[in-house]
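Q: How do we represent a protein-ligand complex in a form that can be generated token by token?
A: Start from the inputs.
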Amino acid sequence: MKKQDISGIKALLATKKKIVIVPHKNPDGDAIGSSLGLCQFLLKGNHKVHVITPNDFPSFLKWIPGSDAILKYDSQSRICDALINDADIVFTLDFNAFHRTGDMESVLEESKATKIMIDHHQSPDDYALYTYSDVSMSSTCEMVYHFIDMLGDTNLIDKDIATCLYVGIMTDTGSFRFASTSSTTHHVVANLIERGANNSEIHNHIFDSNSYESLQLLGRALSNLKVIPESRTAYITLSQEELNQFNYKKGDTEGVVNYGLSLDGIILAVIFIEDKQEGIIKISLRSKGNFSVNEMSRAHFNGGGHINAAGGRSHLSLHETVEKFISILPSYNKALNNE
Ligand code: 5GP
Ligand code: MN
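Then emit the structure tokens for the protein with guanosine-5'-monophosphate bound:
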């Protein structure tokens, strides 16, 4: 972020402000962690702050400090609209374009508040007065740490803020193993632990909170796993019927796509999940090395994200979506086999 942007934001935050923080729809650990970490930091400056998520978030994130106070747009739209229309500042976190907030798109577009974007996705839109975008960053949580640091306020990071930011760095880096994890990431994490984040406890909260049914669902997903060796690709499907059979709850399929990438020699892993309520197939894509799933998703699946992690959607049936995927794959064989 530019020096003059930091001075501008400092001046803005010098007096008490009404602030709304918004992460993307279907918020993950990074979206929730960064929003709540920033919220609790801003509360220390005596501002009035609300976090509004477009919709609900998985229960494995519901223990995070401050998560009780989150407002959900899909069930509380009137109060949320009023807060956004009245806000002096809207921070948008962990997304690059308003449409990533689903039904919140128009109220955000029309809002007269000063927008501040903090995000690490590719191709950020240009709606914010202050844009802090860095695709090399491991997570938006790491960026919120740097943001607080640039404001000269790391001394204000307490155990709760440290816990929130630790969550998103841990989840977005696959527990510090993805290529986006830098030495700086580890320095930030070390500082967060010094400020009170209990790394082992946080890990248990996120990863050791499976239900029996969610593990059985994982078993089904793994038995549905298919490999296309000539494209160094593995994919998984889960139909709505299968989700129902294992009493699917939000978050139960989080991280399942990564099992495909754990196969020796596999560069591209994809999961296709049927969502009858939304009438779409949700697609998560993960890759290794320079193969860009962001580009693949933008070109074929109405989505995007990062080089090695992207999301998308399809309005075809589950079967047709997989057929489409299999039909486009050969055109990527060269890139996949160059890795
Ligand atoms: P997931 O597969 O977990 O839904 O998404 C993987 C990554 O891609 C996350 O960082 C997520 O925010 C991002 N992502 C998912 N869907 C989209 C999309 O439609 N557009 C963009 N730009 N990013 C997306
Ligand atoms: Mn993120």
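The first strand starts at residue 18 and ends at 23. The mean pLDDT is 97.
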